[in-house]
Amino acid sequence: MEMVQPLIMQLVMLPVNLITEPLFNVVLLGQKAEGKFARPWVEVNPFEKLMKGGATEEATAETQTAEAPKIKAGKKKKKSQHAD
After folding, report:
1. Across all residues in the chain, what is the average pLDDT?
2. Is the full-model pTM beyond 0.85?
3. Which ranges in the chain belong to alpha helices (H)?
4. CA-to-CA distance for 54 and 48, rounded, in angstroms?
5. Could you give the CA distance from residue 55 to residue 66 in angstroms, rounded to a whole number?
6. Cα separations (Å) of 80 from 42, 46, 77, 83?
7. Cα 33 to Cα 29: distance, rounded to the nearest angstrom
């Protein structure tokens, strides 16, 4: 029974995961690409919330824009000093 249990789980989980995929719903089932099936399809990462401390998507977007490096306009070049 040790080796059979993972096989049974795989037999159950693969069809369930297939049905929830947007590509399957749009192409094979013929649903319109609107709402949650609208393209581009974003892959949901369940570990992202754990890594960010459970922050919401809005808070994550705000921190990403705040932490982004600001580009300075008109950088000045340092003059090299040569000994004559």
Report:
1. 75
2. no
3. 4-20, 22-23, 48-51, 57-67
4. 8
5. 15
6. 49, 52, 9, 10
7. 11
